[in-house]
């Protein structure tokens, strides 16, 4: 059986992404603001899955105060533009991740410490495609999330869990 691996990292040009987002905003008569661009940069400069609160913290660390309403509106726009993915995991806040700097992947979530692990397994992908073919369907997309219990007795994330799920 093929080993599950971390998804392939892709190099993205942040300036190019900013230009894409600006074009998306202009096309929809949206405003280009420093706050909106800062959120895009926060998601692409930091690897992980981020809640709204975590994104507010990241922008504060960059010296920019962004209102919660602006974060929500901007995230909706970033998702619509295809630059950001919105993820829902059981018993956790909605998370967001960059959509273009890693290849296709699925997620494993620890129900104890809420750690999220990205993985890719070509055999699993092939099985999913075969199942669709058996039902005379063509693959369009899928969301695959595995949930497990932490087997690490002294898990540092479990002890110091502050709600972060990066």
Q: What does this protein structure show overall?
A:
- The structure is a single chain.
- With 166 residues, the chain is an alpha+beta fold.
- The strands form two sheets. Strands 4-3-5 form a three-stranded mixed β-sheet, with no helix packed on it. It has a two-stranded antiparallel sheet with strand order 1-2.
- The chain has helices spanning 14-27, 34-45, 52-61, 68-81, 122-134, 156-159, and strands at residues 84-87, 95-98, 106-110, 116-119, 145-148.
- Residues 160-166 have low confidence and may be disordered.
- It is globular.
- It has two domains: 14-98, Winged helix-like DNA-binding domain superfamily/Winged helix DNA-binding domain (Arc Repressor Mutant, subunit A, Orthogonal Bundle); 106-159, Dna Ligase, domain 1, CATH 3.30.1490.
H/I helix tally: 6
Using the CA coordinates, give the radius of gyration: 18 Å
Q: How many domains?
A: 2
What structural class do the secondary elements suggest?
alpha+beta
Key traits:
alpha+beta; Arc Repressor Mutant, subunit A; Dna Ligase, domain 1; two-stranded antiparallel ribbon; 5 strands; globular
Compact summary:
The protein is α+β, with helices and mostly antiparallel strands and 166 residues long.
Which helices and strands appear, and what pairs or packs with what?
Elements: H1 14-27, H2 34-45, H3 52-61, H4 68-81, E1 84-87, E2 95-98, E3 106-110, E4 116-119, H5 122-134, E5 145-148, H6 156-159
Parallel strand pairs: 3-5
Antiparallel strand pairs: 1-2, 3-4
């Amino acid at each position: 059986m093929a080993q599950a691996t971390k998804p392939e990292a892709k190099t993205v040009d942040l300036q190019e992404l900013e230009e894409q987002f600006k074009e998306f905003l202009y096309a929809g008569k949206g405003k280009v603001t420093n706050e909106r661009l800062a959120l895009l940069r926060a998601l692409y400069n930091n690897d992980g899955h981020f809640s709204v609160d975590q994104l507010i913290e990241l922008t504060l660390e960059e010296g920019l105060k962004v209102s919660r309403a602006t974060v929500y509106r901007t995230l909706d726009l970033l998702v619509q533009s295809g630059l950001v993915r919105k993820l829902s995991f059981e018993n956790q806040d909605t998370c967001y991740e960059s959509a273009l700097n890693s290849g296709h992947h699925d997620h494993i979530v620890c129900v104890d410490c809420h750690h999220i692990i990205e993985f890719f397994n070509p055999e699993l992908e092939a099985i999913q495609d075969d199942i669709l073919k058996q039902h005379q369907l063509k693959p369009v997309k899928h969301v695959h999330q595995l949930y497990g219990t932490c087997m690490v007795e002294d898990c540092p994330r479990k002890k110091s869990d502050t709600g972060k799920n990066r």
